[in-house]
Amino acid sequence: MNKTLLIIGREYLTRVRKKSFIVLTILVPLLVVGMYASIFYFAIAGNREVRYVTVLDESEVFVNQFRDSHNIQFSYTGNSLQEEKRRILEGDQDNVFLLHIAPFEQIPKQVEIISSKQAGIDLIEEIDGQMEQVLRDKRLTEAGIDTAVLNRLHVNVSLTTTRLTQQGESQTSAGASYGVALAACILIYLFIFLYGVQVMRGVIEEKTSRIVEVIISSVKPYQLMLGKILGIALVGLTQFLLWVALSLAAIGVIKTVFADNAELSRLEQVSAMQQGPDPVAAQELNQDADQAGATNPAMEVLRALGTLNIPLILACFVFYFLGGYLLYSALFAAVGSAVDNETETQQFMFPVTLPLLFAYLSSFGLITNPDSSLLFWLSMIPFTSPVSMMVRLPFGVPAWEIALSMALLVAGFVFTVWLAGRIYRTGILMYGKKVTFKELGKWLFYKN
Amino acid sequence: MLIVRNILKQYANHVALDRVSMEIHQGSIFGLLGPNGAGKTSLIRIINQITAPDEGEILLNGKRLQPADISRIGYLPEERGLYKKMEVGEHVLYLSRLKGLSRSEAMERVKYWFRKMDIEAWWKKKVEELSKGMQQKVQFIATVLHEPELLILDEPFTGFDPVNADLIKQEILELNKKGTTVIFSTHRMESVEELCDSIVLINKAKKILEGSLSDIKARYRNNTYLLTYQGDARNALSAHPEKFRLLSHEHDPQNGSGQLKVQLMNGVGSNELLEILIASVQVQGMHEVVPGIHDIFVRSVKES
Questions:
Q1: pLDDT band at A289 (very low <50, low <70, confident <90, very high)
Q2: Which residues of B touch A216 (CB under 8 A)?
Q3: I need a surface site. Which of A364, B10, B58, B155 has the fewest CB within 10 A?
Q4: Structure confidence at residue B291 (pLDDT)
Q5: Min CA distance, A22 vs chain B (Å)?
């Protein structure tokens, strides 16, 4: 055991000291922070900036009909189009817009927004929506419908999805679940593959540099293999935890930078409350926030993320990464031991990684239906469960299913490590031999 | 010290060792010889517990070989290498700690050996920066660092220039003098002659020859003598055809010197040959032609 620790130590330290490890460890959190910061930027800056729209209404239908929103203010003018255009040109301001509405007969074609800078999508949609409403109201009134009835017609439906579980109701966001599931699926696939291949490379390196016989005169081949696998697992874990820690720290910094923003802090409260024990209060706050930022997509993302059980997802991610990695890296180690150089690995790599690849590729189709029976079985089979379970997890999975899947995964990697150990001990001492699957099968039953 | 008893090792389609036994004495240098593919490496791996025999057993100091005995054996395999990216000092430390030395103990000994071999400057260098010969030197140090009782060296001199090969040879002899038993496997017969006390020759998985070097040589003596003389030996030689056979004869009629190689018939002593020759020529020198280990090797392998 002591010697296995020594091997783990060497495998770990040589990799962690590499420049590529350090670069990657710093780069990824920067990327995450960049993404997060840009979401915040759009959530706050996009909302804050008030835009002034001057309405030049030749149809005279829309005068005083536009309602100001929290970041758009309307004013009306009787000046000529030329004058207004000149004013915009001279002013050269980003937040000043001219809405020119042609005489009524030409509506809805002849409506334009004139500005020195391109108008944003949200502004266009807002004006578009309001104009449509005004026109619809006007036509309905003309058709003889009472204004009181009209007012009652304006109903704002905001659809939320609520999942009923034993623990109580919890608000969910299908969009966020979808996004997180996809990200987790891609990440875990990449992680298992990346670190698994590192194990294989390490084994081939030991074999081609011929150090392996020196080492196994001191330790059992099984110890060497296990030490390598565990050492690299620790590297992966270190990298992942560093990413999470660095990202959280950096995000924390960003939050304090933007902390004076009242809206943001309320938003924070909402997501905090939603994970907390008081769903009613959370809902109220949520509605508050809804009114404030319902139209802002960046805000939606932040709020939706808050509805997910992030700690559970992270914990499961670590577990399934480790489990899947152990399972596959053992097989990779066996492949590495059976060949003389990396080019020869292809014939084995494909069949070995096929289940993982299948789980990964099928996820993109199955993600739209996370409770399908195919995905259920995939999330139980140890060879596919690391990827497939991560796809299901954000949508909510019963505890017993997670437990069963985890237990099966543990059994799975114990089996593959055992299997790989038997191939490995024969393979590492075998040089200059083209190995087939039949040959590998024989190695399994060698006495020692 | 080490007893190999009835070892049988079979692989899927061939027998690597067919009930091989041998005994290696404490403090000896033991030559394990044989042509390529004879089963030497298989046996060495079994002694190192890298693989297990199908049948038979190995006794170290009278006790069956245990996993813990690994630290009492030092093994320099024929196929050897180092981690290319590792620093030399760290690497040797790592290998010696795998043999069970504590960190401080390992550190002390690595420093001692680096000083002894005059390679202290290499400590921080990466292995890949060293030449092949330098790497071999590092490897040798790593093999003997934990002061093993039994040292197994498989082709230890390959990759060394003559100066360093000599250095390593002196180290081996020194260790042997201090009591280390050495198993030495090589194809270089001159180093066998030079170093080994006793040998075993394996061919096609079977032991075909064993014994101390002098015994084996004695066994392969065939009563052949080489004589140098002055004068004319022809009459003397032809007079007794039943006593010896002439193998070669060179004679320089100008100064009268000659050299001849004869094989004595059974029961004929070397003195008889001398008596016959002394009568007609001036004998300047005579010595027995003993077969070299090289010839014995080749002959035994061919005969088996």
A1: very low
A2: 50
A3: A364
A4: 83
A5: 17
